[in-house]
Design brief:
This protein is of the alpha+beta class and 558 residues long. It has 16 helices and 25 strands.
C-alpha cells in the first residue's frame, strides 16, 4: 500500500454518535478491525456514504462509513444469508447428489428440505451441523468474483442448479456476482460476510422431512431463541407447497417462463380459485358448528388482506345460510386521553387497553343473548366515542364477525366462552422462492403491499411507509405472532403471482427514495428483488381478489 493511499481519510460513525477519522485506501474489513470494540457484536457489513457494501470492498475515501453489526436488521440479514450458504456448502460436501431447498421461516429459524436418497435422517442432520462447524473452524474466505451470464450458467449447470439457470434468462445485468466457500460457487442475491469464522452462532434441528437452521436475532445476537412448535403454521406452509405443485412452479425463474409463454392469466385464475376454495372450506367448517359459534374473529399482521378476506368469508357464509354481522373494534377505542402510552410517550393505539374492553364485552354478551344495543362510532378527529342512534339486534344464524389485530387474544373477548368463538389467523405467507436457495421473505411481500396501498389510498409515500415499518413489525411481534397458534384455522393470503403485479406499482415509488435517506438501503434491496420478476398486468386481477385491497378497484370498497 502506498503512502498516498494510506493517508486518505475516512470518517467512521460510531454507535454512540461520535466520529472517528481513520486512514482509508484499505478494505472495510481492515478498517472495521480498528473499531470493533465499539460495537456490541461482530461487524458484518457497512454503509459507505449510505450505500450498503460488504467488508471485502476497498474504500478510497473520503467517505463516511457506518458499520453494521448483528444488532442491525441488515447486518443480521447478511449473517443469515451467509449461514444459509454455509449450510448449502456442508450438504454439498457430504452429499454431492443432494438438492437443498430453502423453504420458509419457522420458529425464528429457517426450514429447509434436503432431497436425497436415502431420505434425510436425524443422523444426517447431525453430520451436516458438524461439517458446518468444521468449515467455521477453518475460517475459510468467502470469495467473490464477477462472472458473465454465460459463465454463471455453465457454473450452475455443472453444479446441477438448473433453477438458477432458468432465472438467468431474465437477468437484467450482463454479469452476476458469484460467491464461493471451498469448491462450491453460488449466489444468494445479496452480500455475505468475508470469512466463515464470523459465523459463530447457529444450530440445526431435524424437523421431518427436513431441518431447521436456527440462528439468533438482532435483539440478542449471542443467543439462539428456544424452539417453539408451530404445527398450524407449518401445515399452512405445506399447503402452500401443494398449491405450488398444482400451479406447476415454485421459483421465480419458472414463473417467468410461464408468463413469457402467455400463461399468466391461467396462473392468476388458478391462484384465485385456490383462495376461493379455501375460504369456502373455512365457511363450511363454521357452518358445521353454527349452533355453537357466536363470534368469528379474524386477526393477522399488517397488509395481510384481512378486510377483503372478511368480505369474501361473509359471502361464503351467506351461501351456507349464515348472515354474519360485522362489529368494528375501532369504534370501541377509549377516549384519546385514556389511551396507553408507549416507551416513547406516544399514544399506543395497538395496545389492547386502547380498547374499552369492559364495554366491548358487555355489548358482545348483550348481542349474543338477543338484546338490542346502541353501537358507538369513534370520532377519530375528536378522539372520543359518540352515539348516533345506530341500534343493532342479532337474528338467528347471525354470528358476529370481528376483524382486528387482537382477534386471537382471549383478553379481547374474555366474557365469551372459548367454544363459542371461531378464530382465524390470516397472513401473506410467501412460499415462492427466487431460486431453491433464496427465499422471498414474507415480511417483504407485506411491506410491498403496504407501500402500494399507502400511496394509492392514504397519501403516504414509500419513504414514510418504510420508515414506519419497524414500529409496525414491533407491534406484530408483541400482539400477534406470539399467539398465532391460538387460531382454529390459518389462511394464507399470499398469491403466488402477486409480486409480478405489484412490481409495476412499487418500482416507481421506491425509485423516488434518494441516497441521502436512511431508507435508501431498503429501497434498493426491494428494487433489486423486484427486478427478478417479469411483470403481469393488473387488469387481469379479479375485482374480488385480496390483491385489489392494495392496488385498487376492489368490488368491496367504494
Amino acid at each position: 500500500m502506498s503512502n498516498k493511499q494510506s493517508s486518505i481519510e475516512v470518517n467512521v460513525l460510531l454507535p454512540e454518535g461520535k466520529v472517528k477519522p481513520l486512514a482509508g485506501g484499505r478494505s472495510l474489513l481492515e478498517i472495521s478491525e480498528e473499531v470493533s470494540t465499539y460495537y456490541p457484536s461482530p461487524i458484518v457489513a457497512a454503509l459507505v456514504d449510505n450505500k450498503l457494501d460488504e467488508l471485502s470492498s476497498v474504500v478510497e475515501g473520503p467517505v463516511v462509513i457506518k458499520f453494521l453489526d448483528l444488532t442491525t436488521m441488515e447486518g443480521m440479514r447478511i449473517y443469515r444469508r451467509s449461514l444459509t450458504f454455509l449450510l448449502i456448502t456442508a450438504v454439498h460436501e457430504l452429499f454431492p447428489e443432494a438438492v437443498v431447498k430453502v423453504e420458509h421461516s419457522l420458529s425464528k429459524g429457517l426450514y429447509c428440505e434436503i432431497e436425497k436418497n436415502p431420505e434425510l435422517t436425524e443422523e444426517d442432520v447431525a453430520a451436516i451441523e458438524k461439517k458446518m462447524w468444521q468449515l467455521v473452524d477453518r475460517d475459510l474466505p468467502i470469495k467473490k468474483r464477477r462472472a458473465s451470464l454465460r459463465e454463471a450458467a455453465q457454473v450452475f449447470s455443472r453444479q446441477r442448479f438448473d433453477d438458477k439457470v432458468y432465472l438467468l434468462k431474465f437477468w437484467k445485468k450482463d454479469y452476476l456476482s458469484l460467491y464461493s466457500i471451498s469448491n462450491l460457487e453460488d449466489t444468494l442475491y445479496g452480500y455475505h460476510v468475508p470469512r466463515t469464522g464470523l459465523l459463530q452462532r447457529f444450530a440445526l434441528k431435524y424437523y421431518r422431512p427436513g431441518l431447521i437452521l436456527r440462528f439468533p436475532d438482532k435483539h440478542d445476537p449471542f443467543t439462539i431463541p428456544p424452539f417453539i412448535e408451530q404445527p398450524k403454521l407449518f401445515e399452512v406452509f405445506r399447503e402452500a407447497e401443494r398449491w405450488g405443485a398444482i400451479l406447476g412452479f415454485d421459483t421465480v425463474g419458472a414463473m417467468n417462463s410461464l408468463i413469457k409463454e402467455g400463461q399468466g392469466l391461467d396462473m392468476i385464475h388458478v391462484a384465485e380459485a385456490l383462495h376461493e376454495k379455501k375460504i369456502a372450506q373455512i365457511a363450511d367448517m363454521i357452518s358445521k358448528r353454527r349452533d355453537k359459534i357466536s363470534v368469528i374473529l379474524i386477526a393477522g399482521p399488517s397488509s395481510s388482506g384481512k378486510t377483503t378476506f372478511a368480505q369474501r368469508l361473509r359471502t361464503q357464509l351467506l351461501v351456507n345460510g349464515i348472515r354474519p354481522y360485522p362489529i368494528s373494534i375501532d369504534d370501541y377505542f377509549v377516549d384519546r386521553e385514556h389511551t396507553p402510552l408507549d416507551e416513547s410517550n406516544n399514544y399506543d393505539f395497538e395496545h389492547i387497553e386502547a380498547i374499552d374492553l369492559a364495554l366491548f364485552n358487555e355489548h358482545l354478551l348483550q348481542l349474543i343473548n338477543g338484546e338490542e344495543i346502541e353501537v358507538p362510532i369513534f370520532n377519530f378527529a375528536a378522539g372520543r366515542r359518540e352515539y348516533h342512534g345506530r341500534r343493532v339486534r342479532l337474528e338467528k344464524n347471525q354470528p358476529l364477525i370481528i376483524e382486528g389485530i387482537h382477534g386471537l387474544n382471549e383478553q379481547l373477548t374474555g366474557s365469551i366462552p372459548r367454544d363459542r368463538k371461531y378464530k382465524i389467523y390470516i397472513s401473506a405467507l410467501t412460499t415462492l422462492n427466487i431460486d431453491r436457495h433464496t427465499r422471498i421473505h414474507t415480511t417483504d411481500t407485506r411491506l410491498l403491499r403496504r407501500i402500494v396501498r399507502d400511496a394509492q389510498f392514504r397519501g403516504t409515500d414509500a419513504l414514510e411507509t418504510i420508515r414506519r415499518w419497524p414500529l409496525v413489525r414491533r407491534g406484530e411481534e408483541k400482539n400477534i405472532f406470539r399467539i398465532q397458534e391460538e387460531a382454529d384455522v390459518m389462511f394464507n393470503s399470499a398469491l403466488v403471482y402477486e409480486l409480478a403485479v405489484l412490481k409495476g406499482f412499487a418500482e416507481p415509488l421506491l425509485k423516488k427514495i434518494g441516497p441521502s435517506e436512511a431508507e435508501y438501503v431498503d429501497a434498493r434491496r426491494l428494487l433489486a428483488f423486484l427486478s427478478s420478476f417479469m411483470p403481469l398486468p393488473s387488469r387481469d386481477v379479479p375485482s374480488n381478489s385480496i390483491l385489489r385491497e392494495f392496488i385498487g378497484e376492489s368490488c368491496f370498497f367504494a
